[in-house]
Amino acid sequence: DSGVTQTPKHLITATGQRVTLRCSPRSGDLSVYWYQQSLDQGLQFLIQYYNGEERAKGNILERFSAQQFPDLHSELNLSSLELGDSALYFCASSTRTQETQYFGPGTRLLVL
Amino acid sequence: KNQVEQSPQSLIILEGKNCTLQCNYTVSPFSNLRWYKQDTGRGPVSLTIMTFSENTKSNGRYTATLDADTKQSSLHITASQLSDSASYICVVSSGNNRLAFGKGNQVVVIP
Questions:
Q1: Chain A CB contacts of B98 below 8 Å
Q2: In Å, how far are A21, B10, B32, B47, B57 from A89, measured between CA atoms?
Q3: Residue A69: how many other CB atoms lie within 10 Å
Q4: Contact between chains at A105 and B32 (C-beta distance less than 8 A)
Q5: A with B: how many residue pairs have Cβ under 8 Å apart?
Q6: A57-105 residue pLDDT tens
């Protein structure tokens, strides 16, 4: 158990819909990262927040957005969902940006 | 072109044997290199993290090496066990908070 929690574990929805994935980092960790992992792709970095502020942006689509709240939990919002958005979405946290990241168990999203 | 290339893409090894996974990168500037182990359907777990000045780092039966001059790293698994079956991901961090991920080495250990 990494100490990072993600909800929900599984999510099935239809194209065009909007979903919110939630992540609670390890106690004391200020950095939160979001990743997407499709079957045929490796881990794709989406976005990083540090203490409530956006720190780095990766391959995140405009239909996706995220935020980190004052209690340091984070949410990833996916809108206008497409079939290709079906993937595992991981959240990770670390104490500081260059430190080891601890990954959550992931949210498996299936868009039908 | 991916900034982190891993090889072989996949391999099958007999339980008890050793194996070595390769990671070549072009990321610059370099900050650190990490190896993660990811079991199927689960989140990656950190094995090692090495900075520019470190040549080797061990974590149990896993030993990572780093040659920052040639921009190569390897992960050696000694006396493999069935539980070593997983994807091993090489991640290189640059100084500007950028992370570059390899696609992983898929290892299958058979009895």
A1: 56
A2: 8, 23, 24, 21, 30
A3: 10
A4: no
A5: 44
A6: 888 999 999 999 999 999 999 999 999 999 999 999 998 766 788 999 9
